[in-house]
Amino acid sequence: MENIASRFNLTGKVAIVTGSSKGIGRSIAQGLAENGAKVVISSRKQEVVDAVAEEFRAAGLEAVGIQCHIGDAEQRRALISKTHEMYGGIDILVNNAAINPYYGPLEGSDEAVFDKIMEVNVKAPWVLSNLVLPYMKGQGGGSIINISSVEGLRPGFGLGLYSATKSALIMLTKNQAKEWGRYGVRANVLCPGLIKTKFSEGLWSDEKLVGGYNKTVPLGRIAAPEEMAGLVMLLASDAGSYMTGGVFLADGGYMVSG
Ligand SMILES: NC(=O)c1ccc[n+]([C@@H]2O[C@H](COP(=O)([O-])OP(=O)(O)OC[C@H]3O[C@@H](n4cnc5c(N)ncnc54)[C@H](OP(=O)(O)O)[C@@H]3O)[C@@H](O)[C@H]2O)c1
After folding, report:
1. 24: burial class by Cβ within 10 Å (0-12, 13-18, 19+)?
2. Do residues 154 and 194 lie in contact, with contact meaning Cβ atoms separated by under 8 Å?
3. Which helix (H) or strand (E) element contains residue 18?
4. In sequence order, what DSSP letters do the residues of 90-138 get, joined into one string?
5. Quick one: which atom of ligand 1 is closest to the CA of 228?
6. Residue 258 gets which letter from DSSP?
7. Helix axes 46-58, 23-34, angle to 10 degrees
8. Atom of ligand 1 nearest to the CA of 121
9. 43 lines ligand 1 (CB under 6 A)
10. What GO molecular functions are on record for this protein (predicted)?
11. Domain 4-251 has what CATH class?
12. Is the N or C terminus of the chain more exposed, i.e. has fewer CB atoms within 10 Å?
């Protein structure tokens, strides 16, 4: 009888997680590494990703740090080629890094901010996915997991540009799934609710806002970054081998509230 639980095992797989020096990305990288993957820790500063990779190795996990500002074309190419040189393959890409440089109404936003947020939140995952595709095709498959947001599904005041990028990422994922299924490449998207990280500090440090969120959301609380990792561990592994084009929530029920 086949051991079904062993399908979660990622031994021998290579995973790149963008924006994995902290927050959700770091938790995802840890979960993948704990299930056996060799993980590439990546964010904007080499010394920061080196420190995280070192912590992982000290815990018995397999990890290296490769700096990559995902808004920089040269660094994007280097991230993929160096990963391949080091590990000889790329099986999992988690497009997690994102920015939100502007909080306010659409009418007050400017074009430079629009260009920057589109470059990092949409163009970078698109390009990085295209860069890993030849390796995944060559291996006969792979798994791409894009990190969007409930903001990509439901508009919130003050987050219009960010929401538009996260919506675009959802549609990008569906198109990746449609075009690349024939190569055995799966693409899925995770939409977190409100998670306690540096990124969302402006939201969770506002007591009134959190009070309102906790009253509305069925689970009655915001989440910790580790609570996002399980879904990615499933989507990355053979346990999720028939899952592609999916939009998955980890939002405490936010999308069924209100
Ligand atoms: N927190 C939430 O409530 C929430 C909700 C829904 C969706 N999300 C999504 O979850 C993802 C992760 O967010 P988070 O909350 O975990 O944020 P976080 O704790 O602030 O971490 C962001 C990570 O991205 C890196 N990063 C930032 N800009 C980068 C760039 N241009 N290039 C490469 N790396 C970059 C940061 O590292 P360095 O600063 O070292 O570069 C860090 O590792 C994002 O896609 C976000 O939109 C978050």
Report:
1. buried
2. no
3. strand 14-18
4. --EEEE--------B-GGG--HHHHHHHHIIIIIHHHHHHHHHHHHHHH
5. 10
6. -
7. 40
8. 45
9. yes
10. glucose 1-dehydrogenase [NAD(P)+] activity
11. alpha beta
12. N
Query: CA-CA distances (angstroms) from residue 36 to 16, 27, 48?
Result: 13, 14, 23
Whole-number Å distance, alpha carbon 18 to ligand 1 midpoint, is 9
- Is the minimum distance from the CB of 208 to ligand 1 under 6 angstroms? no
Q: Confirm whether 162 is a catalytic residue.
A: yes
Looking at residue 61, its amino acid is: L
Contact 232, 6 (CB under 8 A): no
CA dist 60 and 58 (Å) reads: 5
Q: What is the DSSP letter of 159?
A: B
Residue 90, judged by CB atoms within 10 A of its CB (0-12, 13-18, 19+), counts as buried
The catalytic position among 162, 183, 242, 254 is 162
Measured CA angle at 177 (ends 172, 183), to 5 deg: 130
